[in-house]
Design goal:
The chain is of the alpha+beta class. It folds into 2 domains: 85-162 and 317-458, MetI-like (MetI-like fold, Orthogonal Bundle), CATH 1.10.3720; 182-308, no CATH class. Helices cover 46% and strands 11% of the residues. The protein has 13 helices and 11 strands. The strands form 3 sheets. It has a 5-stranded antiparallel β-sheet with strand order 4-5-11-8-9, with no helix packed on it. The chain is elongated, with a radius of gyration of 39 Å. Its main location: membrane. InterPro entries: MetI-like, MetI-like_sf, UgpAE/MalFG_permease. One of its GO terms (biological process) is transmembrane transport.
């Protein structure tokens, strides 16, 4: 119908565009999608991705499941490989260690990441700190394993961890300078139990005493040791000399008497003992001479066992009992920065009004953190925790590189055991069963992650 315009002329309304439908009439051509793209064309575009998915994911999973029912020689064994998996001590250790990894490593890394993220918000140099903490993520697992193999070296002169630990220990418990000292030949002393040495006869004031020892290597003697000297007689004191009664060369030096080539024992402790009680004590000077007050007259002189205590060498980080926590520590060093960055991004989106409102209501900083900050960060914390849990289930490089040969069995995890079974024992059946077990362990974590993402999408 023509509609007259303002000038009286009939105007023809514009034609409506043809409607595009997804279902067309019966007998029409191929169905099209919402965007008008034919499903055949869409399938052709998806085909390369589907082929890669099938070749790289679905086929290996299916083949591993099938291969797990055959033994090492290729004969059908049913569930025999799965029975072997739970009967073999090495594989059971790997399962136990993997469980320890899944429980502790993600939790510790997430907690540290949360602490770092919250604290760095309050300091001016927070960005620089975040960069330093995140830098280990740029290092490969293999390189990190080599680094921590050196960090955990048992010798404090080479291993950083033990160097720090020994330094702290020696601050509170002084190390001995004479750990290998023992009695010299025809010594006037005898063993007293507990590593101590004591004189055979009581000592008298005004009569210098000789307390010779031997056994300390020349290169282990204290730097401040000087040539030993005979002690001077003092009428009201018990004096004497503590020294290394050994001179290089056959037939050189006098037994039980200080020689110019022999060194004193600086700092060695001497106690005067009467009736089992210490009545006086002192330490030798650089040339080994010492003096005790008159109370020591008639007492027995004793070298306490603390003089000869073996030096503290630190902790055996790579030993069987600590190897798993040590390797987990290296993992946390690498991934705490990853957790920190993600949590810091979530923390930046937390409404500051809620935090200020909580403070106005009288909450202290700990209450604000526990009851406001952490609940608001719960989705981010879940993402970090789940990501790290999936990551540690397939941990391989660190466990393969860090433990020495003597501790490899105790540090074993499923991924390393899979490698050893497939390429070491050449048992593809057991290796496939371990791969299937790892796949089944990942499924619940993935299912939880997918549910969480769907819940977040509906909000």
């Amino acid at each position: 119908m023509a509609i007259p315009d303002a000038g009286g002329t009939a105007a023809v309304p514009p034609a409506r565009p043809a409607r595009t439908t997804t279902t067309g009439p019966r007998g029409a051509g191929p169905r099209k999608g919402v965007t008008g793209t034919r499903k055949v064309v869409a399938a052709l575009f998806l085909l390369p991705a589907l082929v890669l998915l099938g070749a790289l994911v679905l086929y290996p999973i299916g083949y591993s499941v099938l291969r797990s029912f055959f033994d090492k020689g290729g004969d059908f064994t049913g569930l025999g490989n799965y029975e072997t998996m739970f009967e073999d001590d090495g594989i059971r250790t790997a399962i136990k260690n993997t469980a320890i990894w899944v429980v502790f490593a993600p939790a510790v890394a997430t907690v540290l990441g949360l602490i770092f993220a919250v604290l760095t918000e309050r300091v001016r140099w927070g960005t620089a700190f975040k960069i330093v903490i995140f830098m280990p993520m740029a290092i490969s697992m293999l390189a990190a394993g080599i680094i921590f193999r050196l960090v955990y070296e048992s010798n404090p002169d080479r291993g950083v961890a033990n160097a720090v630990w020994v330094g702290v220990h020696d601050t509170f418990a002084e190390s001995s300078n004479f750990p290998s000292g023992h009695l010299a030949a025809r010594s006037p002393m005898k063993e007293a139990g507990g590593g101590a040495f004591i004189t055979r006869e009581p000592v008298r004031a005004g009569q210098p005493v000789a307390l010779p020892l031997t056994g300390v290597p020349p290169n282990k003697m204290p730097d401040d040791a000087k040539s030993a000297k005979p002690a001077k007689a003092e009428p009201d004191q018990v004096t004497g000399t503590a020294w290394q009664d050994f001179t290089r060369g056959k037939g050189r030096g006098e037994v039980n008497a200080p020689d110019p080539a022999e060194l004193g024992y600086p700092g060695i402790k001497i106690e005067a003992v009467k009736d089992g009680e210490v009545v006086a004590s002192t330490k030798a000077s650089d040339d080994g001479t010492f003096a005790l007050p008159k109370e020591a007259d008639g007492a027995l002189l004793r070298y306490p066992g603390s003089n000869f205590r073996e030096p503290y060498d630190g902790v055996d980080w790579l030993g069987p009992s600590l190897i798993t926590p040590a390797v987990i520590g290296s993992y946390v060093w690498m991934w705490a920065g990853f957790a920190m960055v993600l949590i810091a991004a979530g923390l930046a989106s937390v409404p500051r009004e809620l935090l200020e409102a909580a403070r106005v209501d009288g909450a202290n900083e700990w209450q604000v953190f526990r009851r406001v900050t952490v609940p608001l960060l719960a989705p981010v914390l879940a993402v970090v925790l789940v990501t790290l849990m999936i990551n540690v289930m397939k941990i391989f490089d660190l466990v393969f590189v860090i433990p020495p040969g003597s501790s490899k069995d105790e540090a074993n995890v499923l991924a390393v055991q899979l490698y050893n079974s497939a390429f070491g024992a050449q048992d593809n059946g057991v290796a496939s069963a371990i791969a299937v077990l790892l796949f089944l362990l990942v499924i619940p974590v993935m299912w939880f992650n997918m549910r969480r993402m769907r819940r977040e999408a509906k909000r």
